[in-house]
Protein backbone atom coordinates (compact mmCIF):
# COMPACT_ATOMS: atom_id res chain seq x y z
CA UNK A 1 0.00 0.00 0.00
CA UNK A 2 2.86 2.37 0.73
CA UNK A 3 4.42 1.58 -2.65
CA UNK A 4 1.11 2.54 -4.25
CA UNK A 5 0.91 5.73 -2.16
CA UNK A 6 4.49 6.68 -3.05
CA UNK A 7 3.55 6.43 -6.71
CA UNK A 8 0.71 8.90 -6.11
CA UNK A 9 3.14 11.25 -4.35
CA UNK A 10 5.51 10.81 -7.28
CA UNK A 11 2.79 11.92 -9.64
CA UNK A 12 1.97 15.00 -7.53
CA UNK A 13 5.66 15.98 -7.47
CA UNK A 14 6.15 15.43 -11.21
CA UNK A 15 3.08 17.58 -11.81
CA UNK A 16 4.82 20.30 -9.78
CA UNK A 17 7.75 20.15 -12.20
CA UNK A 18 10.11 17.98 -10.13
CA UNK A 19 11.86 14.88 -11.42
CA UNK A 20 12.65 11.72 -9.46
CA UNK A 21 16.35 11.26 -8.69
CA UNK A 22 18.25 8.00 -8.55
CA UNK A 23 19.78 8.45 -5.09
CA UNK A 24 19.06 10.60 -2.01
CA UNK A 25 22.47 12.25 -2.46
CA UNK A 26 21.23 13.79 -5.72
CA UNK A 27 17.86 14.88 -4.37
CA UNK A 28 16.82 18.30 -3.14
CA UNK A 29 13.78 16.78 -1.42
CA UNK A 30 13.63 13.38 0.28
CA UNK A 31 10.38 11.87 1.50
CA UNK A 32 10.20 8.80 3.70
CA UNK A 33 6.88 7.03 3.39
CA UNK A 34 6.37 5.32 6.72
CA UNK A 35 4.57 2.40 8.31
CA UNK A 36 3.45 2.22 11.96
CA UNK A 37 2.08 -1.28 12.00
CA UNK A 38 4.77 -2.68 14.32
CA UNK A 39 7.49 -1.15 16.42
CA UNK A 40 10.31 -2.52 14.26
CA UNK A 41 8.82 -0.86 11.15
CA UNK A 42 9.02 2.46 12.99
CA UNK A 43 12.53 1.77 14.24
CA UNK A 44 13.78 1.34 10.69
CA UNK A 45 12.40 4.77 9.85
CA UNK A 46 14.14 6.41 12.82
CA UNK A 47 17.46 4.89 11.68
CA UNK A 48 16.89 6.08 8.15
CA UNK A 49 16.07 9.57 9.42
CA UNK A 50 19.33 9.78 11.31
CA UNK A 51 21.19 8.89 8.10
CA UNK A 52 19.39 11.70 6.29
CA UNK A 53 20.15 14.13 9.10
CA UNK A 54 23.85 13.41 8.62
CA UNK A 55 23.51 13.87 4.90
CA UNK A 56 21.68 17.16 5.42
CA UNK A 57 24.46 18.44 7.69
CA UNK A 58 27.08 17.53 5.12
CA UNK A 59 25.12 19.56 2.60
CA UNK A 60 24.89 22.55 4.98
CA UNK A 61 21.18 22.11 5.37
CA UNK A 62 20.53 22.26 1.64
CA UNK A 63 18.04 19.39 1.55
CA UNK A 64 14.38 19.08 2.54
CA UNK A 65 13.42 15.96 4.51
CA UNK A 66 9.77 14.99 4.83
CA UNK A 67 7.96 12.24 6.71
CA UNK A 68 4.87 10.87 5.00
CA UNK A 69 2.29 8.25 5.91
CA UNK A 70 1.28 6.52 9.11
CA UNK A 71 4.14 7.66 11.36
CA UNK A 72 3.48 11.25 10.32
CA UNK A 73 -0.09 10.73 11.43
CA UNK A 74 0.83 9.01 14.66
CA UNK A 75 3.74 11.10 15.88
CA UNK A 76 3.11 14.51 14.27
CA UNK A 77 4.89 17.14 16.37
CA UNK A 78 7.42 14.70 17.74
CA UNK A 79 9.25 14.88 14.42
CA UNK A 80 9.26 18.65 14.28
CA UNK A 81 9.76 19.69 17.86
CA UNK A 82 11.51 17.05 19.90
CA UNK A 83 13.65 15.53 17.23
CA UNK A 84 14.12 18.46 14.84
CA UNK A 85 14.92 15.93 12.20
CA UNK A 86 12.45 16.85 9.53
CA UNK A 87 11.03 19.84 7.70
CA UNK A 88 7.72 18.43 6.66
CA UNK A 89 5.19 16.02 8.20
CA UNK A 90 2.32 14.88 5.98
CA UNK A 91 -0.34 12.28 6.77
CA UNK A 92 -1.76 9.77 4.24
CA UNK A 93 -4.77 11.89 3.26
CA UNK A 94 -2.89 15.17 2.67
CA UNK A 95 -0.60 14.38 -0.26
CA UNK A 96 -2.42 16.81 -2.56
CA UNK A 97 -1.15 19.58 -0.27
CA UNK A 98 2.49 18.60 -0.75
CA UNK A 99 3.30 21.37 -3.28
CA UNK A 100 1.95 24.12 -1.01
CA UNK A 101 3.58 22.55 2.05
CA UNK A 102 6.89 22.44 0.19
CA UNK A 103 6.46 26.13 -0.61
CA UNK A 104 6.08 26.81 3.13
CA UNK A 105 9.33 24.95 3.76
CA UNK A 106 11.05 26.95 1.02
CA UNK A 107 9.92 30.06 2.91
CA UNK A 108 11.85 28.77 5.90
CA UNK A 109 8.94 27.33 7.87
CA UNK A 110 8.19 23.79 9.01
CA UNK A 111 5.06 22.37 7.42
CA UNK A 112 2.51 19.91 8.79
CA UNK A 113 -0.73 18.48 7.53
CA UNK A 114 -2.05 15.34 9.17
CA UNK A 115 -5.75 15.93 8.62
CA UNK A 116 -7.57 12.70 7.85
CA UNK A 117 -10.35 12.78 5.31
CA UNK A 118 -13.62 10.91 4.90
CA UNK A 119 -13.46 11.16 1.11
CA UNK A 120 -9.91 11.29 -0.21
CA UNK A 121 -9.13 8.36 -2.54
CA UNK A 122 -6.75 10.12 -4.97
CA UNK A 123 -9.03 8.67 -7.66
CA UNK A 124 -8.15 11.32 -10.25
CA UNK A 125 -4.37 11.07 -9.80
CA UNK A 126 -2.64 8.72 -12.21
CA UNK A 127 0.30 7.24 -10.29
CA UNK A 128 3.77 7.61 -11.77
CA UNK A 129 4.80 3.99 -11.38
CA UNK A 130 8.23 3.03 -10.14
CA UNK A 131 7.58 -0.59 -9.18
CA UNK A 132 6.54 -3.64 -11.15
CA UNK A 133 8.88 -3.34 -14.12
CA UNK A 134 6.13 -2.11 -16.45
CA UNK A 135 4.54 -5.55 -16.02
CA UNK A 136 2.58 -5.44 -12.78
CA UNK A 137 0.90 -2.52 -11.06
CA UNK A 138 -0.93 -1.73 -7.84
CA UNK A 139 -4.26 0.05 -7.89
CA UNK A 140 -5.76 1.29 -4.62
CA UNK A 141 -9.51 0.82 -4.60
CA UNK A 142 -10.24 1.82 -1.04
CA UNK A 143 -8.51 3.54 1.84
CA UNK A 144 -8.76 3.47 5.62
CA UNK A 145 -10.35 0.81 7.79
CA UNK A 146 -13.42 0.69 10.05
CA UNK A 147 -12.74 -2.71 11.56
CA UNK A 148 -10.99 -1.78 14.77
CA UNK A 149 -9.15 -5.04 15.41
CA UNK A 150 -7.90 -4.48 18.94
CA UNK A 151 -4.18 -4.84 18.09
CA UNK A 152 -4.13 -2.62 15.03
CA UNK A 153 -3.15 1.02 14.62
CA UNK A 154 -4.36 1.35 11.01
CA UNK A 155 -7.80 2.82 11.81
CA UNK A 156 -6.02 5.58 13.76
CA UNK A 157 -3.37 6.38 11.17
CA UNK A 158 -5.37 5.90 7.98
CA UNK A 159 -8.83 6.96 9.09
CA UNK A 160 -12.28 5.88 8.00
CA UNK A 161 -12.98 3.43 5.26
CA UNK A 162 -13.84 4.91 1.86
CA UNK A 163 -14.06 3.42 -1.61
CA UNK A 164 -13.14 4.78 -4.97
CA UNK A 165 -15.75 4.95 -7.77
CA UNK A 166 -15.99 1.87 -10.01
CA UNK A 167 -15.54 3.99 -13.16
CA UNK A 168 -12.32 5.55 -11.94
CA UNK A 169 -10.85 2.10 -11.20
CA UNK A 170 -11.95 0.86 -14.63
CA UNK A 171 -10.40 3.91 -16.31
CA UNK A 172 -7.09 3.22 -14.59
CA UNK A 173 -7.31 -0.40 -15.74
CA UNK A 174 -7.79 0.71 -19.33
CA UNK A 175 -4.77 2.99 -19.13
CA UNK A 176 -2.65 0.18 -17.67
CA UNK A 177 -3.83 -2.23 -20.34
CA UNK A 178 -2.93 0.29 -23.07
CA UNK A 179 0.48 0.75 -21.50
CA UNK A 180 1.08 -3.00 -21.73
CA UNK A 181 0.77 -3.93 -18.04
CA UNK A 182 -0.09 -7.61 -17.61
CA UNK A 183 -1.07 -7.80 -13.96
CA UNK A 184 -2.90 -5.53 -11.55
CA UNK A 185 -3.27 -5.98 -7.80
CA UNK A 186 -6.30 -4.23 -6.33
CA UNK A 187 -5.42 -2.90 -2.91
CA UNK A 188 -7.26 -2.03 0.26
CA UNK A 189 -7.06 -2.82 3.98
CA UNK A 190 -10.15 -4.90 3.50
CA UNK A 191 -11.12 -5.06 -0.15
CA UNK A 192 -14.19 -7.13 0.67
CA UNK A 193 -15.82 -4.13 2.31
CA UNK A 194 -15.40 -2.15 -0.90
CA UNK A 195 -18.66 -0.30 -1.45
CA UNK A 196 -19.23 2.59 -3.76
CA UNK A 197 -22.83 3.71 -4.07
CA UNK A 198 -24.04 0.17 -3.47
CA UNK A 199 -21.60 -1.52 -5.85
CA UNK A 200 -19.57 -4.18 -4.10
CA UNK A 201 -16.16 -5.77 -4.62
CA UNK A 202 -17.54 -8.76 -6.54
CA UNK A 203 -19.01 -6.36 -9.10
CA UNK A 204 -15.84 -4.26 -9.23
CA UNK A 205 -13.66 -7.33 -9.82
CA UNK A 206 -16.01 -8.71 -12.43
CA UNK A 207 -15.99 -5.47 -14.37
CA UNK A 208 -12.21 -5.10 -14.07
CA UNK A 209 -11.76 -8.62 -15.37
CA UNK A 210 -13.66 -7.77 -18.56
CA UNK A 211 -11.37 -4.90 -19.55
CA UNK A 212 -8.49 -6.97 -20.84
CA UNK A 213 -8.66 -10.78 -20.93
CA UNK A 214 -4.85 -10.81 -21.08
CA UNK A 215 -4.49 -8.93 -17.80
CA UNK A 216 -4.21 -10.91 -14.59
CA UNK A 217 -5.94 -9.56 -11.51
CA UNK A 218 -4.96 -10.06 -7.89
CA UNK A 219 -6.38 -8.47 -4.75
CA UNK A 220 -5.28 -7.89 -1.19
CA UNK A 221 -6.38 -8.01 1.65
CA UNK A 222 -9.58 -9.88 2.45
CA UNK A 223 -11.04 -10.05 5.94
CA UNK A 224 -12.62 -13.43 6.78
CA UNK A 225 -15.71 -11.75 8.23
CA UNK A 226 -17.11 -10.81 4.82
CA UNK A 227 -16.16 -13.08 1.97
CA UNK A 228 -19.41 -13.63 0.06
CA UNK A 229 -20.14 -16.65 -2.18
CA UNK A 230 -20.87 -14.19 -4.96
CA UNK A 231 -17.25 -13.16 -4.93
CA UNK A 232 -16.00 -16.75 -5.08
CA UNK A 233 -18.35 -17.28 -8.04
CA UNK A 234 -16.74 -14.35 -9.86
CA UNK A 235 -13.32 -15.85 -9.17
CA UNK A 236 -14.54 -19.17 -10.51
CA UNK A 237 -15.99 -17.66 -13.64
CA UNK A 238 -13.28 -15.25 -14.71
CA UNK A 239 -10.12 -16.88 -16.03
CA UNK A 240 -7.96 -13.80 -15.44
CA UNK A 241 -8.71 -13.41 -11.71
CA UNK A 242 -5.89 -15.32 -10.05
CA UNK A 243 -6.66 -18.34 -7.89
CA UNK A 244 -4.97 -16.92 -4.88
CA UNK A 245 -6.51 -15.51 -1.69
CA UNK A 246 -4.74 -13.74 1.15
CA UNK A 247 -7.01 -14.36 4.12
CA UNK A 248 -5.42 -13.41 7.45
CA UNK A 249 -6.42 -15.56 10.41
CA UNK A 250 -4.21 -13.89 13.10
CA UNK A 251 -4.90 -16.65 15.66
CA UNK A 252 -6.41 -20.13 15.70
CA UNK A 253 -8.03 -19.78 19.11
CA UNK A 254 -11.52 -18.39 19.71
CA UNK A 255 -10.75 -16.55 22.94
CA UNK A 256 -7.78 -14.83 21.37
CA UNK A 257 -9.82 -13.99 18.26
CA UNK A 258 -12.47 -12.50 20.53
CA UNK A 259 -9.88 -10.36 22.35
CA UNK A 260 -8.49 -9.35 18.96
CA UNK A 261 -12.04 -8.26 17.93
CA UNK A 262 -11.73 -10.19 14.70
CA UNK A 263 -15.49 -10.99 14.71
CA UNK A 264 -15.17 -14.58 13.43
CA UNK A 265 -14.51 -17.88 15.13
CA UNK A 266 -11.99 -20.55 14.26
CA UNK A 267 -14.87 -22.77 13.06
CA UNK A 268 -16.34 -20.07 10.82
CA UNK A 269 -12.89 -19.41 9.39
CA UNK A 270 -12.28 -23.11 8.67
CA UNK A 271 -15.72 -23.41 7.03
CA UNK A 272 -14.83 -20.47 4.80
CA UNK A 273 -11.53 -22.13 3.83
CA UNK A 274 -13.36 -25.38 3.01
CA UNK A 275 -15.75 -23.46 0.80
CA UNK A 276 -12.85 -21.71 -0.96
CA UNK A 277 -11.10 -25.00 -1.62
CA UNK A 278 -14.31 -26.57 -2.87
CA UNK A 279 -15.38 -23.73 -5.15
CA UNK A 280 -11.90 -22.95 -6.48
CA UNK A 281 -10.02 -26.24 -6.88
CA UNK A 282 -6.28 -25.73 -6.48
CA UNK A 283 -6.74 -22.32 -4.85
CA UNK A 284 -3.63 -21.04 -3.16
CA UNK A 285 -4.02 -19.50 0.29
CA UNK A 286 -1.88 -17.20 2.37
CA UNK A 287 -2.38 -15.63 5.77
CA UNK A 288 -1.13 -13.31 8.51
CA UNK A 289 -0.45 -14.64 12.00
CA UNK A 290 0.36 -12.82 15.24
CA UNK A 291 2.30 -14.73 17.91
CA UNK A 292 1.99 -13.85 21.59
CA UNK A 293 -1.02 -11.55 21.65
CA UNK A 294 -2.14 -10.34 25.11
CA UNK A 295 -3.09 -13.23 27.36
CA UNK A 296 -2.20 -15.95 24.83
CA UNK A 297 -1.55 -19.25 26.62
CA UNK A 298 0.58 -22.13 25.42
CA UNK A 299 -2.56 -24.12 24.53
CA UNK A 300 -3.97 -21.17 22.57
CA UNK A 301 -0.70 -20.88 20.67
CA UNK A 302 -0.96 -24.59 19.81
CA UNK A 303 -4.45 -23.92 18.40
CA UNK A 304 -2.80 -21.58 15.89
CA UNK A 305 -0.30 -24.28 14.90
CA UNK A 306 -3.20 -26.70 14.56
CA UNK A 307 -5.12 -24.42 12.19
CA UNK A 308 -1.99 -24.01 10.09
CA UNK A 309 -1.75 -27.78 9.75
CA UNK A 310 -5.40 -28.01 8.71
CA UNK A 311 -5.39 -25.19 6.17
CA UNK A 312 -1.89 -25.77 4.81
CA UNK A 313 -1.14 -22.22 3.70
CA UNK A 314 1.14 -21.75 0.71
CA UNK A 315 2.53 -18.59 2.25
CA UNK A 316 2.27 -16.75 5.56
CA UNK A 317 3.35 -13.41 7.00
CA UNK A 318 4.13 -14.03 10.64
CA UNK A 319 4.74 -11.48 13.40
CA UNK A 320 5.36 -11.20 17.13
CA UNK A 321 2.70 -9.03 18.75
CA UNK A 322 3.86 -5.43 19.07
CA UNK A 323 1.82 -3.15 21.31
CA UNK A 324 0.58 0.02 19.62
CA UNK A 325 -0.58 3.14 21.45
CA UNK A 326 -4.23 4.16 21.20
CA UNK A 327 -5.44 0.69 20.21
CA UNK A 328 -8.04 -1.14 22.29
CA UNK A 329 -5.47 -3.78 23.26
CA UNK A 330 -3.19 -1.05 24.58
CA UNK A 331 -5.97 0.49 26.64
CA UNK A 332 -7.64 -2.67 27.85
CA UNK A 333 -5.25 -5.62 27.91
CA UNK A 334 -1.81 -6.23 29.25
CA UNK A 335 1.02 -7.06 26.84
CA UNK A 336 1.86 -9.92 29.18
CA UNK A 337 3.51 -12.59 27.01
CA UNK A 338 7.24 -12.20 27.73
CA UNK A 339 9.44 -11.22 24.76
CA UNK A 340 11.33 -14.52 24.86
CA UNK A 341 8.10 -16.52 24.77
CA UNK A 342 6.72 -14.47 21.87
CA UNK A 343 9.96 -15.06 20.00
CA UNK A 344 9.89 -18.80 20.60
CA UNK A 345 6.24 -19.10 19.58
CA UNK A 346 6.93 -17.06 16.47
CA UNK A 347 9.83 -19.29 15.50
CA UNK A 348 7.66 -22.38 15.98
CA UNK A 349 5.07 -20.83 13.68
CA UNK A 350 7.72 -19.91 11.09
CA UNK A 351 9.32 -23.35 11.25
CA UNK A 352 5.98 -25.11 10.74
CA UNK A 353 5.05 -22.79 7.89
CA UNK A 354 8.36 -23.46 6.14
CA UNK A 355 7.76 -27.20 6.34
CA UNK A 356 4.22 -26.87 5.03
CA UNK A 357 5.25 -24.49 2.22
CA UNK A 358 8.08 -26.83 1.17
CA UNK A 359 5.66 -29.78 1.08
CA UNK A 360 3.03 -27.81 -0.80
CA UNK A 361 5.63 -26.66 -3.32
CA UNK A 362 7.04 -30.15 -3.81
CA UNK A 363 3.55 -31.25 -4.89
CA UNK A 364 3.99 -28.90 -7.85
CA UNK A 365 6.90 -30.86 -9.31
CA UNK A 366 5.87 -32.31 -12.67
CA UNK A 367 2.90 -29.96 -13.03
CA UNK A 368 2.44 -27.24 -15.65
CA UNK A 369 1.70 -23.62 -14.89
CA UNK A 370 1.45 -20.33 -16.73
CA UNK A 371 3.97 -17.88 -15.31
CA UNK A 372 3.94 -14.16 -16.02
CA UNK A 373 7.61 -13.24 -16.48
CA UNK A 374 8.28 -10.20 -14.32
CA UNK A 375 12.02 -9.67 -14.73
CA UNK A 376 15.44 -11.23 -14.30
CA UNK A 377 15.81 -13.53 -11.34
CA UNK A 378 17.77 -12.25 -8.34
CA UNK A 379 20.53 -14.78 -8.89
CA UNK A 380 21.18 -14.63 -12.61
CA UNK A 381 20.63 -12.46 -15.66
CA UNK A 382 20.23 -15.70 -17.61
CA UNK A 383 17.05 -16.53 -15.73
CA UNK A 384 13.62 -14.94 -15.54
CA UNK A 385 11.39 -14.93 -12.50
CA UNK A 386 7.66 -14.54 -12.29
CA UNK A 387 4.63 -15.92 -10.52
CA UNK A 388 2.12 -18.63 -11.29
CA UNK A 389 -1.57 -17.85 -11.21
CA UNK A 390 -1.40 -19.23 -7.65
CA UNK A 391 1.24 -16.63 -6.71
CA UNK A 392 4.19 -19.00 -6.47
CA UNK A 393 7.51 -17.42 -7.36
CA UNK A 394 9.03 -19.41 -10.23
CA UNK A 395 12.36 -19.15 -12.02
CA UNK A 396 13.32 -20.53 -15.41
CA UNK A 397 16.00 -20.07 -18.08
CA UNK A 398 15.50 -16.89 -20.02
CA UNK A 399 15.95 -18.27 -23.54
CA UNK A 400 14.16 -15.88 -25.86
CA UNK A 401 11.42 -15.01 -23.38
CA UNK A 402 10.97 -11.47 -22.07
CA UNK A 403 9.38 -9.66 -19.14
CA UNK A 404 5.66 -9.39 -19.72
CA UNK A 405 5.40 -12.76 -21.54
CA UNK A 406 3.08 -15.46 -20.29
CA UNK A 407 5.16 -18.62 -20.37
CA UNK A 408 3.88 -22.14 -19.91
CA UNK A 409 6.36 -24.00 -17.74
CA UNK A 410 6.84 -27.40 -16.17
CA UNK A 411 7.98 -27.41 -12.56
CA UNK A 412 11.15 -29.42 -12.05
CA UNK A 413 12.22 -28.53 -8.51
CA UNK A 414 10.94 -26.68 -5.44
CA UNK A 415 11.84 -25.37 -2.02
CA UNK A 416 9.71 -23.53 0.55
CA UNK A 417 10.01 -20.19 -1.26
CA UNK A 418 10.56 -20.82 -4.97
CA UNK A 419 9.71 -23.17 -7.81
CA UNK A 420 12.24 -24.01 -10.51
CA UNK A 421 10.86 -24.71 -13.96
CA UNK A 422 11.57 -25.54 -17.57
CA UNK A 423 9.97 -23.10 -20.00
CA UNK A 424 7.86 -24.83 -22.64
CA UNK A 425 6.27 -22.10 -24.78
CA UNK A 426 4.91 -18.60 -24.83
CA UNK A 427 1.12 -18.53 -24.46
CA UNK A 428 -1.78 -16.10 -24.18
CA UNK A 429 -3.93 -16.20 -21.05
CA UNK A 430 -7.05 -16.67 -23.13
CA UNK A 431 -5.81 -19.85 -24.82
CA UNK A 432 -5.12 -21.43 -21.44
CA UNK A 433 -8.82 -21.61 -20.52
CA UNK A 434 -11.06 -24.32 -21.84
CA UNK A 435 -14.30 -22.34 -21.89
CA UNK A 436 -14.87 -19.45 -24.30
CA UNK A 437 -14.30 -16.00 -22.89
CA UNK A 438 -17.41 -13.89 -22.86
CA UNK A 439 -17.00 -10.15 -22.86
N1 LIG B 1 -5.99 -5.10 6.77
C1 LIG B 1 -5.26 -6.29 6.82
C2 LIG B 1 -4.02 -6.22 7.64
C3 LIG B 1 -3.17 -5.04 7.59
S1 LIG B 1 -1.85 -5.04 8.70
C4 LIG B 1 -6.13 -7.37 7.45
O1 LIG B 1 -6.94 -7.13 8.29
O2 LIG B 1 -5.92 -8.49 7.09
C5 LIG B 1 -0.94 -6.47 8.20
C6 LIG B 1 -0.73 -7.46 9.30
O3 LIG B 1 0.11 -6.93 10.30
C7 LIG B 1 -1.98 -7.89 10.06
O4 LIG B 1 -2.76 -8.82 9.38
C8 LIG B 1 -1.40 -8.45 11.33
O5 LIG B 1 -1.07 -9.81 11.21
C9 LIG B 1 -0.12 -7.65 11.50
N2 LIG B 1 -0.25 -6.70 12.61
C10 LIG B 1 -1.08 -5.64 12.69
N3 LIG B 1 -0.93 -5.03 13.88
C11 LIG B 1 0.01 -5.72 14.56
C12 LIG B 1 0.60 -5.59 15.84
N4 LIG B 1 0.23 -4.63 16.68
N5 LIG B 1 1.57 -6.47 16.20
C13 LIG B 1 1.94 -7.47 15.36
N6 LIG B 1 1.43 -7.63 14.13
C14 LIG B 1 0.46 -6.78 13.74
FE1 LIG C 1 -6.06 -3.44 11.04
FE2 LIG C 1 -8.10 -5.12 11.35
FE3 LIG C 1 -8.35 -3.02 9.72
FE4 LIG C 1 -6.76 -5.06 9.05
S1 LIG C 1 -9.00 -5.14 9.31
S2 LIG C 1 -6.27 -2.87 8.91
S3 LIG C 1 -5.93 -5.69 11.00
S4 LIG C 1 -8.09 -2.94 11.94
Task: Please specify the SSE layout and strand pairing.
Layout: H1 2-15, E1 29-34, H2 39-58, E2 64-69, H3 70-75, H4 77-82, E3 88-90, H5 98-106, E4 111-113, E5 136-140, E6 142-143, H6 154-158, E7 162-163, H7 166-178, E8 183-187, E9 195-196, E10 199-200, H8 201-211, E11 216-220, H9 229-237, E12 244-246, H10 254-260, H11 266-279, E13 284-291, H12 298-311, E14 315-320, H13 328-332, H14 339-362, E15 368-376, E16 383-388, E17 393-397, E18 406-414, E19 419-427
The structure holds S-adenosyl-L-homocysteine and iron/sulfur cluster.
Structure report:
With 439 residues, the chain is of the alpha/beta class. It has three domains: 2-113, Rossmann fold; 136-362, pyruvate-formate lyase- activating enzyme (Alpha-Beta Horseshoe); 368-427, Nucleic acid-binding proteins (OB fold (Dihydrolipoamide Acetyltransferase, E2P), Beta Barrel), CATH 2.40.50.140. The protein has helices spanning 2-15, 39-58, 70-75, 77-82, 98-106, 154-158, 166-178, 201-211, 229-237, 254-260, 266-279, 298-311, 328-332, 339-362, and strands spanning 29-34, 64-69, 88-90, 111-113, 136-140, 142-143, 162-163, 183-187, 195-196, 199-200, 216-220, 244-246, 284-291, 315-320, 368-376, 383-388, 393-397, 406-414, 419-427. The strands form six sheets. It has a five-stranded mixed β-barrel. The longest helix has 24 residues, at 339-362. S-adenosyl-L-homocysteine binds at residues 37-38, 151-152, 154, 189-190, 221, 223, 248, 250, 288, 290, 319, 321-322, 324.
Amino acid sequence: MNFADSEIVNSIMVERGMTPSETPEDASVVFINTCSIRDNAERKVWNRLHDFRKMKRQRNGDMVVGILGCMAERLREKFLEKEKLVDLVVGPDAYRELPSLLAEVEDGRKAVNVILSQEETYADITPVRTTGNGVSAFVSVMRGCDNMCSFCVVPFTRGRERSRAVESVLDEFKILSDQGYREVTLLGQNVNSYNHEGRNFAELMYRCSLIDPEMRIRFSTSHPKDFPDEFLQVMQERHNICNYIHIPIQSGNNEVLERMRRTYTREEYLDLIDKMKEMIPGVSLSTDIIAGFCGETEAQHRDTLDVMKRVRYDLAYMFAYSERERTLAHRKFEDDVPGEVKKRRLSEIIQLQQEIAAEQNRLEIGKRHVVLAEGRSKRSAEQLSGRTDTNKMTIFDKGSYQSGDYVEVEIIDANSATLKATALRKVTLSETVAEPITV
